[in-house]
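Need the bound structure for adenosine-5'-triphosphate, inputs here:
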Amino acid sequence: MTDAAVSVRDLHYKFGETKAVDGVDLVVERGEIFGLLGPNGAGKTTTIRAITALLPVPDGVISVFGLDVAKRRMAVRRLIGYVPQQLSADGSLSGVENVSLFARLFDVPRRERKAKVSEALEMMGLTDAAGRLAKTYSGGMIRRLELAQALVSSPQLLILDEPTIGLDPIARGSVWDRIAAVRAETGMTVLLTTHYMEEAEQSCDRVGLMHRGRLGKLGTPRELIDELGHDDATLEDVFREYSGGPLEEDQKGLRDVRATRRTAGRLG
Ligand SMILES: Nc1ncnc2c1ncn2[C@@H]1O[C@H](COP(=O)(O)OP(=O)(O)OP(=O)(O)O)[C@@H](O)[C@H]1O
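Answer from helper R.:
Posting the output first, comments after.
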């Protein structure tokens, strides 16, 4: 076990006969923004659900800040703020009520709750909208509300599953700006999944390319692009080279996910 934020050693995970994760090795260093990239079905969500102790894994395979996830499930969960792909905000509650609920769930001490809730909403630019019902929020505001919910317990590791999926480009930019600001202010480690290669290229310190349950290329976006050896290459080109095809070919289910998030864009 290491002292890194996350250490994964030879992770395998099957759903029935489907090998969702097929031997992943990964280290996320403290304080970095690490992007797990790949198409639908690559195994990204399964990998992060294993890291967040939501799936059973054998002893010694995953550690979070040196704690063995298999043995210290609850302690690990307390270190993590997780925003899943599915909607985690309640449209019938106001912004402040949604975040307060998470503060209670994550045992933020009663006397600190009010200040922590305000701070999390402020960090996500939602102070003015805090009193409104979440169902009146735009898709981008809901995503930021979900980030505020995850941040209210001051986690050491923020895990985001497709944080910008289904949002328009302006809302996507705003979510990335907020993630960068949180890291700059708190030094928090961020592990996220995305299939938006361009956004990952701009915002992640390091990325890992995942394809069919395996994590192949790992490095800074620049390193991976430079390996290709032509000047105007992009991370998308790196992925194509690595997987033998464009990202889009594996994207059949993506439209559904996008549609789900769009529906969720307006709650209620
Ligand atoms: N609960 C489940 N039951 C059965 N199969 C599953 C389940 N969850 C995932 N899988 C399968 O495991 C494989 C990896 O899925 P996973 O969700 O980890 O991929 P992903 O890269 O995160 O894609 P997405 O962006 O769609 O979530 C896929 O073949 C998927 O169909």
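Comments: The two ends are 45 Å apart (CA to CA). Residues 32-42+84-267 form a domain with the Rossmann fold fold (CATH 3.40.50.300).
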